[in-house]
Amino acid sequence: MTKILIIEDDEAISEALATILKSEGHEVLEADYHDYLAKAQSDHPDVIFLDILLKGQDGLLLCRKLKSDPKALQIPVVIMSAQPNVSHDVKAAGADDYLAKPFDMSQIYDLLTKYEKRKS
Questions:
Q1: Which pTM was predicted?
Q2: Cβ-based neighbour number of residue 55 at 10 Å
Q3: Which of 40, 44, 52, 105 would bridge with 81, disulfide CB 3.0–4.6 Å?
Q4: pLDDT tens for residues 16-50?
Q5: Domains in the chain, start-ordered, CATH in brackets?
Q6: Which residues, in sequence order, are CB contacts of 94 under 8 Å at separation 6+?
């Protein structure tokens, strides 16, 4: 079982993703830009799925903060975005992967498998 933190302001996407992942046996945590860092530090997720555009905050900035925090920097961060041509910015922010929206659940499962292998 993988512990996943979702930081996504689109409630429909967040709920759908959480429901599917929970049905597959994963533990799913959700956060917004106010409490994302505290959740990452205290709950120690195995992977973070982070939207690039959050109401009131830039997901790339949040990624930089996660990757500069000693308690969170080892957690893989996957940036999700519907914006084209952002992969360079995503890598520059320190993200481990980029997931283009709309995405297929098989892409999520591939990423989870990748990070589960890295963990063991």
A1: 0.95
A2: 9
A3: 52
A4: 999 999 999 999 999 998 999 999 999 999 999 99
A5: 3-113 (3.40.50.2300)
A6: 63, 64, 66, 67, 68, 77
